[in-house]
């Protein structure tokens, strides 16, 4: 980080994954497993919430994106627990001289309902990121692919504060 760098930086992230036709694939969102619900297609566990937050953090620090650090062509990340990717990205951001102020995200989905696990998801993500993480859910009101329940999307923003030097 240069001496002229701002003390605050914001980053945004987005991710989307389609539902999988494989009934054995679990749905994982924000590190929470939703039993009995169709899972998402992806190289890792397809946790769109963890992926969007990872990109928001990396973007805020100017450290590239999730595909750069954890390429889906690398067998290391096949079936990976995306919380481990999120933890690694959080560590990269801190190693670059930033503390994470907070993260906010909006999950766009028709089902399942997030309300029953929202607090658990926030706690889980907050523990991994090391900062408050808020999670909101929004339906697409039957519009487009998400509205037709073909997948789940997530938007995230992250705020970083420069560590005192
Ligand atoms: Mg993804």
What does this structure look like?
- With 165 residues, the protein is an alpha+beta fold.
- It has one domain: 2-Layer Sandwich (60s Ribosomal Protein L30, Chain: A), CATH 3.30.1330.50.
- Helix content is 29%, strand content 31%.
- It has 5 helices and 6 strands.
- A 4-stranded mixed sheet has the order 1-6-4-5. It has a two-stranded antiparallel sheet with strand order 2-3.
- The termini are close together.
- The model has no long low-confidence stretch (mean pLDDT 94).
- It binds magnesium ion.
- Magnesium ion binds next to strand 1 and helix 1.
- The site of magnesium ion has 5 residues, from strand 1 and helix 1.
**Considering DSSP H and I runs of 4 or more, what fraction of the residues is helical?**
25-40%
Which CATH architecture would you pick? 2-Layer Sandwich
Largest sheet: 4 strands, mixed
The H/E string reads EEEHHHEHEHE
Bound molecules: magnesium ion
Instruction: Give the low-pLDDT segments.
Output: none
CATH superfamily: 2-C-methyl-D-erythritol 2,4-cyclodiphosphate synthase
Please tally the β strands and state the result: 6
Query: What would you call the shape?
Result: globular
CATH topology: 60s Ribosomal Protein L30, Chain: A
Q: Radius of gyration from the CA trace?
A: 16 Å
Beta content comes to 25-35%
Strand order within the widest sheet? Answer: 1-6-4-5
Keywords, separated by commas or semicolons:
single chain; 165 residues; alpha+beta; 60s Ribosomal Protein L30, Chain: A; four-stranded mixed beta sheet; two-stranded antiparallel ribbon; 5 helices; globular; binds magnesium ion
